[in-house]
Amino acid sequence: MRTTTMRLAHLIHEVEHNRNHYFQVSLPKKSGVGNQLHYRPHRTLLVLVDFSRAFDSIDHRVLSRLLANIPGVNCRRWLRNFLCGRYAKTRVGHRHSDRRPMLRGVPQGSVLGPYLLSLYVHPLLNLLNSFAGVTADTYADDLSIIVKGHSREDAIPTANMVLQKLHAWSQENGLAINPSKCEAAWFTLSTHTESDYDREGRWPLVVAGCQIPVMTMGASRNTKLLGMDLDPRLTLKVAATKQCTATSQRISQLRCIAHKEAGPSPHDPRTFVIGYGASKLRYGSELIWAVATDSAKNEMQKTHATLARIASGVPSTVDPESALLEANMPPLHVLCLRARLSIFENTRACQMDWMRRPPPEPPPRAGFCISPSSRDELYAFVDAYTKDYGITQSSPREERFFRSSIPPWFAASAHRVTIGVELPIDHSITDEEELIREKRRVSEEALALHSHRSWILAKGGGVDVPKSAGVGILLSSLNSSEIIEKASINCGARHAATGRNPVRRF
């Protein structure tokens, strides 16, 4: 995984994918005579495994064998030269011990350290992912194992078998598992299904001879993944509440700095407010906004509005919309939508194998809710507009849009970004191919006045944004195909214009 958000998005995707996959269960009828088939969504078991001193335990001999599979002779020599010939010694006061060669570990804090660790555990991921219904991935030295099952009786034996293979592999390759820091969570929707609980302790989860507690409905504490609390329903309500609380502590500090009499002018601390306060609030907000309840979203919006009042210097009686306008800050739901689209482009560029169409829905019944639109439908929707505007993956200007993790709407240095530009197109053309060529010709003429390094329609003079181009489609919601006709974002002190066409290169 490239980012922590993508790691969390992977987990949410797997849980939602399993919930959309139903199985049949035979339950007694209410009358007590005979049984009746019911549809029940699959459950998900998450196991978080912690390695003790993972970066310091990498065996150079094992890593050298793995480096032999890397293409490029010079690259392999350079990596081996990076690892070999390192020595260490201990200092106590003014006395030094004799130096000894380092046969294990990679330098902490180096750029290559996480990459070499990922290469080291790559055979482990292949081993764990070979089990049916099991998905494993890592972020740095954190390993997560996702097991799909009908009930705990079905999922925990599979997880124990996987953990046995994990323990054997770690002993062979010199990595030590720390059972005291391992956690597990059981994700479900129902609170009345008895199979989701193990009150008698018949199905313990064991790793390295130690039992791992499994968090489920009614547990006293939540499992944490990369600093975000995970509740059994995976609504992330607890995570949203804690982030609002942590942001409120920073708000009290920012108010001391932004005092209108003793502090700087109202517009000076804007960057500091966004970087110190809003960054804490917006961690994982693109995922929280997708699954959290309305009450959690409203609490986050109130906290975001308080940050806007501090940045603009307006009193607390000013309404949130006016405070955001004075602070020149976009609304929180717009920022979350842009971040969610960024995740979508990152996963598409990485070609993740966990991006797949949800399984077919079960037969309709009373109270059944249809699953959301699949990624394939959204891909087809995006591809239709990119084809309509003559943009392909082979286009050199669009290369980074398709192949890198930089979102196309990253315009931090621009004064104004306009989505939607009306172009003089000859509408008398009826042939589809000629119409596409006409649209591309008109687009290139409109963009010829701007730098090829930047396709951002900026205003203000002297704006140089060395970012790649892309296509942005702004939808009213992820489950709707309706396009917002007018949209613009003012990134500086100037006013932003609006456009008509919903899809443009920018």
UniProtKB/TrEMBL annotation:
InterPro entries xref list: DNA/RNA_pol_sf (IPR043502), RT_dom (IPR000477)
Pfam family, one: RVT_1
Positions of the Reverse transcriptase domain: 1-230
Xref: CDD domains: RT_nLTR_like (cd01650)
Protein name: Reverse transcriptase domain-containing protein
Species this chain originates from: Trypanosoma cruzi
